[in-house]
Design brief:
By secondary structure, the protein is of the alpha/beta class. It has helices spanning 24-28, 36-48, 72-79, 99-105, 124-130, 136-149, 168-180, and strands at residues 6-10, 12-13, 32-33, 53-57, 86-89, 91-92, 114-117, 154-161, 185-190. It is globular and about 50 Å long.
């Protein structure tokens, strides 16, 4: 048996977003997805080898299948037919959690009800300067969709403080927004400059 119950499995790499603080696109390039058939076969092999939980990771897993005739939820439905006991998602953005995604995900037998939904800031002004592609209201909507299906879901997130130009009022907006939602854990970190990025 493996020494680890949990196995981490990368399904894609790279990112097509242009967040103003992030150097991932410069370092890893555009989003590229691994073939679904290979993913399913390898996950099945990991499960048969004794890994009870598979964590799907990547730079931007919500973009899985972009430009191809597939998507993250298509892949999850295929993985649900493997011998994996549990499947956990890595970090997602609010746009990934559409009504259609949630409706299909609710039927999965193996998906863990834990969502790491990246926030970065609860202030729309800061989110705009970060070039994040959602608002605080979009984020709140995504959380409501999760909780409607999984009322006791684990909800974790990332929050950046000290983004260039962030005012005390914007910081307070972020703190107040976070207090509204039932987070089970927060990863809070200070802004740090990355060469070659606008921020």
């Amino acid at each position: 048996l493996p020494s680890e119950t949990r196995a981490y499995f990368k399904i894609e790499d790279g990112c097509d977003n242009r967040c103003t603080y992030c150097a991932i696109r410069l370092v890893r390039g555009r989003a590229r997805s691994r073939p679904a058939g290979a993913i399913v076969a390898e996950i099945d092999a990991l499960a048969r080898a004794g890994h009870r939980e598979i964590v799907l990771t990547g730079t931007h897993i919500g973009s899985y299948g972009k430009g191809e005739d597939t998507s993250l939820i298509d892949l999850l439905e295929q993985i649900d037919e493997t011998s994996a006991e549990r499947v956990r998602l890595g970090s997602l953005e609010p746009a990934a959690l559409s009504e259609a995604f949630i409706e299909r995900a609710a039927r999965l037998k193996r998906l863990c009800p834990h969502f790491h939904l990246s926030l970065q800031s609860g202030s729309d002004g800061v989110l705009h300067r970060m070039n994040r592609r959602y608002t605080a209201a979009d984020y709140r909507t995504a959380v409501a969709r999760i909780l409607r299906v999984w009322p006791q879901a684990g909800l974790t997130t990332d929050v950046m403080v000290g983004f260039p130009g962030e005012t005390e009022a914007e910081h307070r907006e972020s703190v107040d927004f976070i207090r509204e939602l039932p987070f089970t854990d927060l990863h809070i970190f200070r802004f740090s400059a990355r060469g070659g990025t606008p921020a």
